[in-house]
Amino acid sequence: MSRRVALMVHPNRTTAMESAEKVTKALSADQIDVTLISSDGSPMGDEDYELVIVLGGDGTILRAAEKARGKKVPILGVNLGHVGFLAEAEHSALDEVVKSIAARDYLVEERMTIDVSIENDGVQLSSGWALNEISIEKLGSRMIEVLVAVDGRPLSRWWCDGVLCATPTGSTAYAFSAGGPIVWPEVEALLVVPVAAHALFARPLVTSPKSIITIDVVSGDAQVVGDGLRKFDAPSASRIEIRRGHEPIQLARLATAPFTDRLVAKFRLPVEGWRGE
To answer: pTM, whole model, 2 decimals?
Structure first.
């Protein structure tokens, strides 16, 4: 049986299209069929792909995750963007990436996701999921008032611009920008990060991966956004429930470098003076 991989590229980057041609030519020479898939919201199809290769930034990788979810197909990202925290390699290493794919020299790890459901007056309005974070955001200029509960017990009430519920994977994304902690990928947890909260107790929280986070929109209309891609309305009096996702996402890894090294490289952290080996 011939090997098949899917290829997704950032639609507006010339470099991505040029790299796609290079990858397709090299893998085809190794008897690997390459199918170019769209980065829009259309389904990926039922083809039996070994891998989804993504040429782009984290946004393109998140779109690939939307297509690969539930299919148990690992995603391998090559960064053409800025930080590219989800990417496994930089564009300069494209030749090495192709060789590793041809040799099946990569590992696959699972990343937990989160599921969200929204109801109002006992009626479910919508549901969704995220790999990075679920963002509850105010609509308009006025703050929203929310009541946050964990595992059925009320925790605190905030006036705020929003609330983020993130996975460890998403701890280096929006949640990090909002002042949340960085969580190592192998730590299973759910993060709750208030955004510009007007309250005495409004600190980021790290809860059990088994916890159920409930956010009641007490006042004001909100919008719920999954990974910046999937948007749902949450009008005043809505209840938003977030829990561990039932479908994890698989990421392909080319190396087993420590997560600390990734942090240092991606965020360009100053480590001069370190006297270890």
So the answer is: 0.92
Residues belonging to the active site: 58
In the predicted model, is pLDDT for residue 256 greater than 80? no
Q: Please say whether the beta carbons of 10 and 84 come within 8 A.
A: no
Counting beta carbons within 10 angstroms of the beta carbon of residue 238, is it exposed (0 to 12), middle (13 to 18) or buried (19 or more)? buried
What phi and psi values does residue 212 have, to the nearest 5 degrees? Answer: -115, 120
- Kind of pairing, strands 133-138 and 222-226? antiparallel
CB 47 within 8 A of CB 35: yes
Residue 161's pLDDT band (cuts 50, 70, 90): very high
Is 222:138 a contact under the CB 8 Å cutoff?
Answer: yes
Choose the CATH number for 3-111+249-267 among 2.170.120.30, 3.40.50.300, 3.90.550.10, 3.40.50.10330. 3.40.50.10330
C-alpha 57/C-alpha 217 separation (Å) is: 33
Each residue's pLDDT tens digit, 224-246: 999 999 999 999 999 999 999 99
Let me know: does 222 contact 144? Beta carbons within 8 Å: yes
